[in-house]
Write a structure and sequence with these properties.
Blueprint (H helix, E strand, L loop, with lengths): L9 H6 L13 H12 L5 H17 L7 H11 L4 E3 L5 E3 L1 H13 L1 H9 L9
Antiparallel strand pairs: 1-2
Helix pairs in contact: 3-5
Length: 128
Amino acid sequence: MVNRTLDYGFNWTIYQQDNIEIENHNDSIIFQQLKYFNEKDQNKKGYVKALYLHHLLDFFKETYVNIYDMDLVFEKFLQDKIVVEIMDSDGNNTNFQEEIQDIFQLLRDNKEELYVDLKGVHSSEFEK
């Protein structure tokens, strides 16, 4: 099994200075990443979008649902894998639905390239 705490070097970016082990926290790794990256880049949401894209691409590779049914993949991703809303350090709720929909639209617009990359073949060999 892959150690997901290594995603984005996350345990280095947050906990190295405080000498806190990530396993001591009750929140999921995705929740902790969202909280950290949201606070790091509150205006552009670039880190948050990269985080969602990273986890969504992983989900495409590890899911058992039909990956050619993107809407089903997106639905299962939202249900089973990801956190959509967090409370930041100031106690404010932050919803990432807009950023998630941007990522979904990006993949819809580039689905041929996505499937080629997932299969690991050249576009001339791509069928479907």
